[in-house]
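Supplementary Note 3. Input sequence used for the single-chain structure prediction.
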Amino acid sequence: MPSREERAAGFARIERLVALRNRIDAEIAEEVRAAAQREVEARLEEALVDPERVEASIVGQLGFALRVSPTRARTQLRLARDLHAGLDNVREAFAAGELDERRVAAIVAAGRHLDPTPRAELDRRLSLHDLPLLGVRRIADLARTVAAAVAPETFAERARAARRDRHVTISPAEDGMALIRALLPMEQAITCYAALCKAVTEHWVGAEPVTRTRGQIMADTLVERLTGQSATTPAQVEIQVLVPLESLLDPDSPLPAEIPGFGPTALLDEATCVGWRRLVTRDGIVIGGDSRRRAFGGVLADWIRARDRGRCTEPGCDAPIEHLDHRRRWSEGGVTSLENGRGACAFHNQVREQAGWSMEGAATVTPTGRRYALRL
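The predicted structure, written as discrete structure tokens, is reproduced below.
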């Protein structure tokens, strides 16, 4: 049986590894900032001074190097930048391994609207607290409270801007499910949730037998009030389903069908939606044809989106496909075909048009000559 000392030593090693991981993340942040500065200097020498295009090119390269999406790369770039714009104490604690990236990111996000001087005051006041002992949520709340105190007018404008940014998104979940998220003003969100809770209470006190859980009643009520139809009514959409050729040849094949962008599923049937489009795959590749049109459209566009699983094909990017792009440009003789087409998010399709970016075969080439294989 392990001794008490051996068991304690195991946890001590974990603590040291966590501190090491934090220091490595801090070093990565420093390298991200340095790489961005070098790219800015190089672009200035090339007389390319459009800040948005410069940032997009930098973010694109960082996304490949960090193996993350452009959104995540931009967040890390701004984190690295803001740590050198007034957050000296936070940066030192990060470099020492005392704070992890999630806590640092929460502080940076709370002060992103501040100029360097009030951000430095935020940093000073936070240093009076024992931040390593606080959870991410508590640090975020504390940082926002301090940010509001050091610059109340700026904080109020940030709150007004946040209300203007209200929106709704959808993202895939496991087992044929999906998540709908609504970013709303707090009072509206609370009102919506209270209405769903009220629907549960009304159902429980009604004459109808209770056969659903609280969560099921709330979810069904949300669907009914948004669509105006019962949750059991077939959805008024057409669903593309990828069916492996092996499943058609062998009814006992374990390979599941897949909805592009949402993953494998096994429970969808004709009762759940109005229309279906079945695309047959072999070894995970959609079997299709080509087109002589310049733009990808019709069935060909559907094939490309399905083959690429509804997600951008650049490595590290999970953004939904917004553009269909020619791997070999149309202007360079590229044909509008399944083989020459690829799905891309708006960011990666647009950044490729910048000077120095190109595509060779199944790889994207950045302005520094780095090659990154597409996720096909």
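The two ends are 50 Å apart (CA to CA). The longest strand covers residues 235-244.
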